[in-house]
Amino acid sequence: MGNVYGYVRVSTREQNEDRQMVALNEAQVPEKNIYMDKQSGKDFNRPMYRQLLKKLREDDLLYIKSIDRLGRNYEEVLEQWRLLTKEKKIDIVVIDMPLLDTRRGKDLMGTFLSDIVLQVLSFVAENERKNIRQRQREGIDAAKNRGVQFGRPQVPLPDNFVQIYNRWVVGEIGGREAAELCGMPITSFYRKANKRREEHGYR
Predict the structure, then answer these.
(1) How many CB atoms lie within 10 A of CB 52?
(2) Rounded (10°) CA dihedral 68, 103, 80, 61
(3) Alpha-carbon separation of residue 189 from 1, 151, 195, 197 (angstroms)
(4) How far is 60 from 79, CA to CA, in rounded Å?
(5) Which of 2-6, 16-20, 197-201 is least confident?
(6) 183: phi > 0 → left, psi -120 to 50 → alpha, else beta; which?
């Protein structure tokens, strides 16, 4: 029996690792052997996970709370599982899914069942991630159709903008003077002026 490790991942939006830490403590994983990343699970380019990979040796045991804590990309989760169990030759325990405990069923049937469960769960995790993105897009589109404005609110144009704009268009004044007369940063004046030019021509 080698060393016992734990891996925790929370997205930066959640910022709450308590549930996973409690589960690993109950599994008696030494606190010094728990590695935690606070970032998305879209890929495995995470600093603490990379450190954990370097630490793991044959016959070590790795605990994770649930398969989506390992990652959310179906193909990459399967690839990492293969790397950990076949190349690193460690055992993995997914606490929320007792069938995903590689210490059990070392025979062909046990391995077969474990692989099926892993593939199904990984697919479900990735599919849910895609569904969330789709629901977000649909929600944004529906809100736009209702007239909801996204981003920073538009600052109203100064009352004298059109008058100053017309003087600038015909070359009576330069852009810097026009911006000062409007009380606007020069970049804002040019942006608004160019937008008006596109919409109205030289009017």
Answers:
(1) 21
(2) 90
(3) 70, 19, 10, 12
(4) 19
(5) 197-201
(6) left
Q: Annotated catalytic residue: which of 11, 40, 66, 188?
A: 11
| Amino acid (one-letter) located at 69 | R
Which among 186, 174, 178, 175 has a CA at the least distance from the CA of 160?
Answer: 178
For the entire predicted model, the pTM comes to 0.58
Hey, which residues does 9 pair with through a beta bridge?
37
**In this predicted model, what pLDDT tens digit does every residue of 39-97 receive, in sequence order?**
876 778 889 999 999 999 999 999 999 888 888 777 788 888 888 888 898 999 999 88
Are the beta carbons of 46 and 37 closer than 8 angstroms?
A: yes
Instruction: For residue 4, give the H/E element and its range.
Output: strand 4-10
Q: Which residues contact 91 (CB under 8 A, 6 or more apart)?
A: 59, 60, 61, 62, 85, 101, 102, 103
Please give the Cα distance from 127 to 108 (Å, whole number).
28
In 10 A of CB 91, how many CB atoms?
20
Q: Which two tokens stand for residue 10?
A: 């929370």
- The answer to whether 11 is a known catalytic residue is yes
